[in-house]
Structure formats: C-alpha cells, structure tokens
Specification:
Elements (H helix, E strand, L loop, with lengths): L6 E6 L5 E5 L5 E5 L3 H7 L6 E6 L3 H8 L17 E5 L3 H21 L12 H24 E10 L6 H8 L4 E5 L7 H4 L4 H11 L4 E4 L2 H15 L2 E2 L3 E4 L2 E7 L6 H8 L2 H14 L3 E8 L6 H14 L7 E8 L6 H21 L7 E4 L4 H10 L2 E4 L9 H8 L5 E5 L4 H5 L4 E3 L4 H13 L2 H15 L4 H11 L2
Parallel strand pairs: 1-4, 1-6, 4-5, 6-7, 7-8, 8-11, 12-13, 12-15, 13-14, 15-16, 16-17
Antiparallel strand pairs: 2-3, 9-10, 10-11
The structure holds 6-O-phosphono-alpha-D-glucopyranose (G6P).
C-alpha cells in the first residue's frame, strides 16, 4: 500500500483520549481520558501527530460516525491540537476482541488469573473470538497505513494490539514501529496455556515491531523466553532475532508527571474531600488503597490481611481506618461484577467483626471519584499495593509524590514498580496474607521520620521517567 497520509508520528491504543456519553436530550458529552499518554504526547508537539483509537461505547460510536473517518479533531472536539481518529469497529467484533480476547484471555494469561482446574477451555467460540481480534487489529493497521507519511513512526500500545505490528509492516514496510506492553508478560509455562497457533501468532505479531518496550526487565525476559521456546528465535532481554529480522527490546519504566499531578491534587474538589476525610479520621492512621476493581489487584487478599492485622495486633483496633477505593472496571465481564460484590461482602464482614459505635474500621468506596482518590493520596499514612502481578502500578508512584506527612508503602514483589522501589517499600508476597498483615503492622509502627525519609526517596524514583520522557525514549528507540 502506498503512503497516502501526512502523519510523522502515530499512536495506536484501544482506549483513546476522549470518551463520549449520550445525554437524555441526545447531545454527546465528551470527557478526557488517556492518562499519561495525553500529557506525554503534548510534550512531543501536536503537529503531524495522529492518535488512532477504538470507539468503546454507543456514545463513542455516535461521535465517530458524525465525522468522516472518525476524525474527532475535525468536529470541534478538544483533542489538544493533535488529530484523533476513532475507529467505529462493528460492535460485535469489538466486543469479542476487547472483552473475550484482550480482557478475558491475554490479560488473564499475563496476570496468571485463571482458576486452572476449570479454565481456560478454548473451544469453537474461542476461535470465532480470535478471528474478531484479528479483524480488530487489521482495522487499526489499515487506518494507520492510511494516515502515515513515508517513514513515519508508530507507537502501538498494549495487549489489545499484539498482532498489529506485523499486519502494519506487511502493509507499509517503510514505517518504523514500536510496541509497548503496559502489562507483565507471562512466564513460558503459563503462556503455553494458549493454543499453540494463537501463541505463535501473538509473538509473530509483536515481532513485526522494530522495538518492543516493557516496564520491567522481568517482562522483557519473559517475552524473549516465549519467542525462543515457540519460534526457535534467538534472544535475551535486549533483543529477539527471528526469520532474518531483529526486534530490539527496551525497558522504560513509566513514571509520574509531578507538576501536573500536584496541580490537579490542589484543586478545590480535592481540598473539599480532604476536609471531609480528615474529619472522619480524627487522629487515627489511614491505610489507603486505590485500584480499579480488578482481579489482578488482589483486593480480596488485602482485606484478609487487614482483618488478620486487627485480629493478631489488637492494639490497632480503634487506632486505624482502612480507606479503600475500588472504582468500577470492565463490568461487562461477569468475573469482575462478582469480584466487586465479593469485595463488598468482605468489607461488611470486617465492619461486623470489629466496628464499634465510634469506630468504623473500613470505608470501602466502589464509585469513580478521582478527586477523592487524590485526597486519599495526600492523607494516607500507609499505602497497600498488593497485586498478584502488575506491569508497573502507577498508584504506588503517585502517592509518594503527593503524600503530606510521609506514607509507608506495603508493596507486592510482583508489581513492576517493586524493581525500582526495592527495600524503601515494605515488600510482600501478595499471596502471603499473614506476611502482608505483619508488613501493615510494621508500616503503622514506623516512626514519622523514617516514613518521611522513605517517602522522599520513593518520590524521587517515581518522577525519574515522566510520560513525556517515557514517550520520547520510545520515539528515539526507533531512530
Ligand atoms: C490497564 C491496561 C490499559 C487499560 C487500563 C484500563 O492499565 O494496561 O491498556 O486502558 O488497564 O482498562 P480498560 O479496559 O478500562 O481500558
């Protein structure tokens, strides 16, 4: 396919920078999303940049259909000056690609989430879903091929788009392509759960990239090991060579934009929630956690650990409150709805066992309230981040930056961020509930000075690679 577009830099991700909801009066309401990618991209200049994303909801589809090619920037939306092309992929195809393959298969594989005696079971419906994933990746590749200028650079994001690099390379061999995985990569023996052809196609898709980026060397090594095992490739954590091509591997541990975060956390909506939280806490210490209600975040073992803390260390009763924010995520999947209900039940059990007239041991919030989350970051004395596995975990990096009095971080060894934090965090095995309870006790007992000193060191590490530098590093890696 000949080059027809003019974009010099392209980004492809499932979730884009804007989302739309249809109001009762039929009007479309836009809200900004996209997190670090949005601020990082603005650092690279908007000229000649095109962001290709999928329409995720009916509101998105309506917005994408209103303008030719789904180019939201041409329809008066605030896209920060860059071009945004939102793909209106057939809803059934999208649903199978996003929910069934990306979120229920690849996400589960990379986070080791299956209950192995019964799942996964790859049957005929799986193969239909896989075809939809291929079609969804192809739709992205075709849009990118249309928009890209000769020799342009393309930054492909995450497990939704693992096939895209090779499909795009076939269409446009002149492009330079990077893929970035925000997730961990599965160890070889777990990756083997995938049907062999699907596993091979996934790896070959990724190897269509010139550069594959990860948050942690652990995930880069795991990817290379899968390529060696399945494809007979040669590789280590720096590169994979297969069929005459080399894909370089890079480790870019995404960090925090401290100024933007502090500015957002000083706004009125955060201040007002902070006041309410302080009233609620009094002179009690706060153990905070903020996650999507996500199976891999291990909220349930976190609650078991808190319950064990109150049982085995009764001196903390009445002296601590667990403020847990678990905002809704992927509720199209029954596992996630059930998980939210389970977490809520566990919180009620803790309340029933320990609550008194003047002490609520736990306040669990399952609504989406970003300002409240930021208020928690500022006020927390102890942060619990205990995922069973996590590509990075940015909450662990944001809290030290915003913490007012210092916050001890109890952190799973299985999060990418643990590589960078090391012993300045209190590292725990996420499956070891008793060990996590002991770490919570240590964190609560830590002196103010030690907490402050650790937090300052963690904050320094957290801002080392802000989104702008993180993106620039990947663009550079394609030179
Ligand atoms: C993880 C993934 C992202 C994804 C986010 C939210 O961080 O790595 O790609 O956007 O979760 O998930 P969602 O399914 O709501 O986009």
């Amino acid at each position: 396919m000949a080059s027809s577009g003019s974009a010099r830099l392209l980004v492809a991700s499932n979730r884009g920078p804007l989302q739309f909801t249809e109001r009762d009066d039929g009007q479309l309401e836009a809200s900004r999303g996209g997190g670090g990618l949005v601020s990082g991209l603005s650092g690279l200049g908007s000229d000649g940049v095109v962001w290709v994303c999928a329409a995720l909801s009916d509101g998105d589809r309506a917005a994408a259909r209103k303008v030719e090619g789904g180019r939201l920037d041409r329809d008066g939306h605030d896209t920060g000056g860059m071009a945004v092309r939102m793909l209106d992929i057939d809803p059934a195809t999208f649903h199978r690609a996003y929910n069934a393959i990306a979120n229920s298969t690849l996400w589960f594989i990379h986070h080791l989430l299956y209950a192995i005696p019964t799942a996964p079971a790859f049957d005929a419906s799986f193969h239909r879903e896989w075809s939809s994933y291929e079609a969804y990746n192809r739709a992205f590749a075709e849009a990118l091929a249309e928009e890209a200028a000769e020799g342009a650079k393309v930054l492909v994001q995450d497990y939704h788009l693992t096939l895209l690099p090779q499909v795009l390379r076939d269409l446009r061999p002149d492009l330079r392509i990077a893929h970035f995985s925000h997730t961990p990569w599965a160890p070889v023996d777990y990756f083997r759960l995938l049907p062999t052809e699907v596993a091979r196609e996934t790896l070959l898709g990724m190897l269509g990239a010139d550069h594959a980026g990860f948050h942690s060397p652990r995930w880069a090594r795991a990817f290379a090991a899968c390529c060696v095992e399945y494809l007979g490739a040669e590789g280590d954590e720096t590169q994979v060579r297969h069929a005459g091509r080399t894909t370089r591997l890079g480790v870019h541990p995404l960090g925090v934009d401290a100024d933007a975060l502090r500015e957002r956390a000083s706004r009125h909506d955060v201040e007002s929630r902070l006041g309410a939280l302080r009233d609620k806490l009094g002179d009690r210490q706060a153990i905070i956690r903020v996650d999507r209600t996500e199976l891999s975040k291990n909220i349930s073992r976190g609650l078991l650990a808190y319950r064990e803390l109150l049982r085995r260390y009764p001196q903390w009763r009445g002296k601590v409150t667990h403020l847990a924010s678990a905002y809704p995520s992927r509720h199209d999947l029954p596992e996630y709805r059930e998980y939210t209900a389970q977490v809520q039940r566990m919180a009620v059990e803790i309340e029933d066992e320990f609550g008194t007239d003047d002490w609520r041991p736990i306040v669990l919030d399952v609504t989406d309230d970003y300002a409240r989350s930021l208020a928690l970051y500022r006020v927390g004395d102890v942060l619990l981040v205990n995922p069973v596995r996590d590509g990075m975990n940015l909450v662990a990096k944001e809290v030290p930056v915003l913490s007012e009095n210092g916050c001890a971080v109890v952190l799973s060894t299985e999060a990418g961020v643990a590589d960078e934090f090391g012993e300045d965090a209190l590292l725990v095995n996420p499956f070891d509930v008793s060990g996590t309870a002991d770490a919570l006790d240590r964190a609560l007992s830590m002196s103010r000075e030690e907490r402050r000193a650790r937090t300052d060191r963690l904050a320094e590490v957290s801002v080392r690679l802000p989104p702008s530098a993180w993106l620039a590093a990947q663009v550079e890696a394609l030179d």
